[in-house]
Amino acid sequence: AAYFHTTSRALDPQPHFHVVIPNVCLGEDGKTRSIVSKRFYEAKLEHGAYFRLALGQELGRRSGMEFERPTDSHAKAKTWMEAKGVDPRICSLFSTRRKEVETQLGSTGRTSARASSWATLQTRRAKQEIPPRSELFAGWKRQAEENGFPTDVSAAFGREFPRGQFSDYRNALRTARDNLAQEFSHFKASELRRAVFVECQG
User: Fold this and answer.
1) The whole model's pTM is what?
2) Integer distance in angstroms from the first to the last C-alpha of the chain?
3) Which residues are paired to 17 by β-bridges?
4) What pLDDT, in 10s, does the model give residues 52-89?
5) Is 24 left (phi over 0), alpha (psi -120 to 50) or beta?
6) DSSP string spanning 3-31?
């Protein structure tokens, strides 16, 4: 089962899905047993990359939005994509949870991914009652307007949406293969698929 949520725990806009897989299956002998879940765990990065690619393609098809992969401090492309043309300040405005985590990290002087996971847990709020979406949307719109941001979608991007194009599959395959070969002496098929999905994002 997949559940669609639209908010973070701080009630910022954050559309995301939760996918629940029951720990039970029906064997060939007709008996129910628990599942071997290790393969689900091993495939989570591959499936996440595929989900982001499919999401971007569908958004591009419906609205013409374009996406790009941000780069790190070494100019290396990250594994996720972001919508082109969005003012970083509006992302910051609705990133309350990230600010809480960064504040916690700053108090410790730690910067690793493991420290970030720890800080996320340390600052996690108890879940609260979620207002109706109509109230949430009205509040987000009011908050954006009070901070000087347009609430018309096209205006927020600074232009009309162009028709986005994702990378050619064959080129993405070659790039993914070459990048993996530079870093590893061997890799799994699932790792290659994940890398291809990432490269297809642009």
Assistant:
1) 0.72
2) 30
3) 4
4) 888 888 888 888 888 888 888 888 888 888 888 888 88
5) beta
6) EEEEE-TT--EEEEEEE---S-EE-TTS-
